[in-house]
Amino acid sequence: MTEFDRFVDILKAAGEGTRLRLLALLAQGELSVKDLTDILGQSQPRVSRHLKLLSEAGLVIRTAEGSWAYYRIAETGGVADFVQRLIGEIDEDAPRLVNDRKALARVRQMHRAQADAYFSQIAASWDTIRNLHVPESALEKAIMHAVGKKKIGRMIDLGTGTGRMLELLSARYARGTGIDSSREMVAIARAKLAAASISHAHVQLGDISQPDREIGPADLVVLHQVLHYFDDPGVVIEQAARLLNGEGRVLVVDFGPHELEFLRKEHAHRRLGLGADQMNSWANGAGLEVSLFEEFPNDNANKDLTVCLWVLSRT
Ligand SMILES: C[S@@+](CC[C@H](N)C(=O)[O-])C[C@H]1O[C@@H](n2cnc3c(N)ncnc32)[C@H](O)[C@@H]1O
Fold it and tell me: Domain containing 30: what range?
């Protein structure tokens, strides 16, 4: 196929109403086929057919995860530039696109409500649940090691839960802030920090997909077992990067790719782990790069889960 033919295919793929709407939606972040179907109000086979065409033309990238598939806008090369230009030309006030954005906001709100309901239920037992899925002591040693001995002025723990990271790293930072959207988690974290006499950290309610900039800048932002609750972890990494000072780093701890669907159904997970390529591309999108990566195969109950640690630093 000549470059010319390929360009015609790209134009044909983009040149259709529903597919333009899909591109405009995906410009807002990575989304699953199920969510795109709900937002557009079209049948799943139809939406999948449009997505297949966009993907074959290289305009979007597909990631399969268990029984779900996620799509995102092309990130590199000439096609990516073309998609960006195209999206820039679309009239964002067009009524159909305004309605799509409203529907997207509703879908995101619904996910958030589901996650909040789950965390309010399990807040009291979270410390035990976390230990079931994770080789905790080896991991916590590695976290201390990765953070290093250098004094941290401000540390921000996004999705702090019961505040374990604020507790673990309390000797390393001068001021700590934990953010969480679950009232129950925040109440437990507050009580735990008080019981451990950690007075140089505080926790507050907030949405980490839109954190208040006032809480930064930070030398270290932590995302410990949080990103897999988001359809688009890249958005949260971007927000974390915005909270950093010039030398700041983001520490991410999360599962590597797995196929345990029950974690979606029973434990509110959205992503079945995070892959190395995905992390590189999310980090790059946020102006960061992976400066450390370690894996911790699980020797506890669930041997199918591997925990990974990433440090993201400025490029
Ligand atoms: C699995 S827990 C991890 C808690 C803690 N980082 C740890 O490892 O023990 C995930 C936490 O993320 C919080 N969370 C999920 N979505 C959030 C959002 N949009 N904004 C703030 N917190 C969120 C949940 O309430 C929950 O406390």
Answer: 3-90
Encode burial over 18-56: b for 16+ CB neighbours within 10 A, e otherwise.
bbbbbbbbbbebbbbbbbbbbbbebeeeebbebbebbbe
Domain boundary among 68, 90, 112: 90
Whether the CB of 207 sits within 6 Å of ligand 1: yes
Question: What pLDDT, in 10s, does the model give residues 250-300?
Answer: 999 999 999 889 899 889 999 999 999 999 999 999 999 999 999 987 765
User: What's the whole-model pTM score?
Assistant: 0.88
Both 136 and 275 in one domain: the answer is yes
Q: What is the DSSP string of 282-310?
A: HHHHTTEEEEEEEEEE--SS-TT-EEEEE
Ligand 1 center to residue 312 CA distance, Å?
19
Q: What is the CATH number of the domain that holds 216?
A: 3.40.50.150
Ligand 1 centre to CA of 227 (Å) is 8
Name the packing angle between helices 44-56 and 3-14 (round to 10°).
Answer: 150
Beta 306-314 vs 244-255: how paired, if at all?
Answer: antiparallel
